[in-house]
Amino acid sequence: MNGHSIAFGCVLLVLAGGSAPAQSVVYVASDASGANDGTSWTDAYTDLQVALTNTVAGDIWVKAGTYKPGSARTDSFAMKNNVAIYGGFAGTEDPAMFDLDDRDFEMNETILSGDIGTIGDDADNCYHVFYHPDDGTNLDSTAVLDGVTIAGGNADDSRPHSDGGGMYNSSSSPTVRSAGTRPTRAVAGWTTTIAARR
Fold first, then answer.
1. Across the chain, what does the average pLDDT equal?
2. Quick one: which of 166, 194, 71 has its CA closest to 124?
3. Cα-based distances in Å from 158 to 9, 52, 70
């Protein structure tokens, strides 16, 4: 870690600020069996990254469950400006009636995990659960992550894969609220969950 790097350990980052969704909702549910187009809980995307790729702007509601970014160590989720990811849903909520403040994060835990290989063996985990390099992405406060648990990143390689096992940000400052963390690993140690470089 250099003098321009900031790391946060396993902490609750920011308290939730619930509100009704302002834009259209895209749904993600690992057990959905419908059209896989994100238009309802029944037809929800089963892959969060596919939902992110296909969403230009709006809210993504993610049902309780465990979601992984892929099958290779270099795979990761990537946030986008003007897209808010919300976890903590049972999978029955109606955005026309449901207040985001009413989510139950313990009962409906949404886990975004880098544990893609042998479960419990961090040696084959993703380097980063979220990865935002200095590639022109330039995330700002309109990129939102709210109400999820980040787990299982293992940034144990050389830079840029040596820190930010939970989330790596370079020239990016997304909004992270109500994000719990379980141990993620980096060269700098187990507490390097989110790293920001400028």
1. 82
2. 71
3. 20, 27, 21
